[in-house]
Amino acid sequence: MFFILSSRIILTSKQLHPCGGTGSQYQSSTPLTSYADKLGFILLFPTSKSQSGMNCWDCHSTKSLKHDGGGDSQGLASMVKWALTKYNGDPSKVFVVGGSSGAMESNVLAATYPNIFAGAASYSGVPAACWAGSPMSTPASSDLSCPLGKKASTFSTQQWGDLARDCYPGYNGTRPKMMIVHGTNDQAVVISLLRAQLEQWSNVLQVSFAKNVTNDPITNWKKIVYGDGTKLVGYEVQGGGHIPPFQGDATLKFFGLM
If 0-12 CB within 10 Å is exposed, 13-18 middle and 19+ buried, where does residue 75 land? Predict the structure, then answer.
């Protein structure tokens, strides 16, 4: 995961880093540092706590799945608040990006702190609260019904939307815009989770499917547009595996930063 700060702020993890990764490892690999130099924002790269020996974000506990519940989500939200003050950032331009575990936590943050985040991008993630009830949110969990698609095959669009809304009961303000990216050949987090995330956020954001656009932003990527495309878009990557290549221009343009 990383943050971008200045007049603009982005919080990410892979972009939030995936399981087994660290913030510093992601810092050395992400292309966003070059965007930061050009566009004038600051990046912060947090590292998750260990779950049974693996650095994975907490996407399962009651604490992390509730606004101000005391889990990873609150810790990351507190980091953003600190950074906004420290670097005089624009609180209306805070975003989160993540891959795998980081993408899952990005969905969690969009649901638990919609008052902080203006948008999120999920590369190979799952819906907010999909891991609820599991003993841990790692590949070693005894309950993999979330990433392997069992819940995606049974939950309704309304159920997914309710799970997100329940992360911050009573919240009636603006919700983050969402960008959802997934590869069709992902074996770790199966492709049905793309649909599940889009169902969740289309329900929360009250937007309907509008159209598909082929080969956008690059060959073999299909853009799935909801509404006018400003609140919710998905990308199905034909033949893509786990964590498709980060598309900097597409992501930052969706966020309104380019």
Answer: middle
Judged by phi (left if over 0) then psi (alpha if -120 to 50, else beta), residue 66 lies in beta
Residue among 48, 64, 100, 101 flagged as catalytic? 100
Residues, the chain, total?
258
pLDDT, greater one: 17 or 39: 39
Would you say residue 18 has pLDDT above 80? no
**pTM of the prediction?**
0.92
CA–CA separation, 256 vs 258, rounded Å?
A: 6
pLDDT, tens digit, 9 for 90 and up, residues 187-206:
999 999 999 999 999 999 99
User: For this structure, is 124 an active site residue?
Assistant: no
